[in-house]
Amino acid sequence: xxxxxxxxxxxxxxxxxxxxxxxxxxxxxxxxxxxxxxxxxxxxxxxxxxxxxxxxxxxxxxxxxxxxxxxxxxxxxxxxxxxxxxxxxxxxxxxxxxxxxxxxxxxxxxxxxxxxxxxxxxxxxxxxxxxxxxxxxxxxxxxxxxxxxxxxxxxxxxxxxxxxxxxxxxxxxxxxxx
Length: 178
Fold this sequence. Notes:
- It contains three helices and nine strands.
- The chain has 178 residues and is of the alpha+beta class.
- Strands 1, 2, 3, 4, 5, 6, 7, 8 and 9 form a nine-stranded mixed β-sheet that branches.
- The chain is globular and about 45 Å long.
């Protein structure tokens, strides 16, 4: 079995080792070029990225048939009520597909959360809230599209967990072998 590396991806970093000339890459943080991401996070998302040096393991982690749950901490504009959360729990019709039911709950802002650079925009008249949202899919910008579909746009998106792996005890930009 191959080796697994966990990385706490900062905002603005692209999920590749090759440079694009515009953004920091994994090579700016991880000095082990034999590892490859098992999945990806958008440049404007933060948090857990799993990398491996084993192609078969990489496929198993990312293949939707294995349905590894992914948990996100999502800061949204506004405060969703139970009716809005129930829509996420039953599945949301988006323009190109209907999501599978999600696990979702309101949560307090995560403890020991690092500052984001640039900071999330704030509007004095509109409160924000945090959701813990778990899905077993991972289509393009899915979480952002889901929260927008119920009327609560995502302001900050942090992937906290993939399967059994979490961000626990990992600083932003930090990595560790497991």
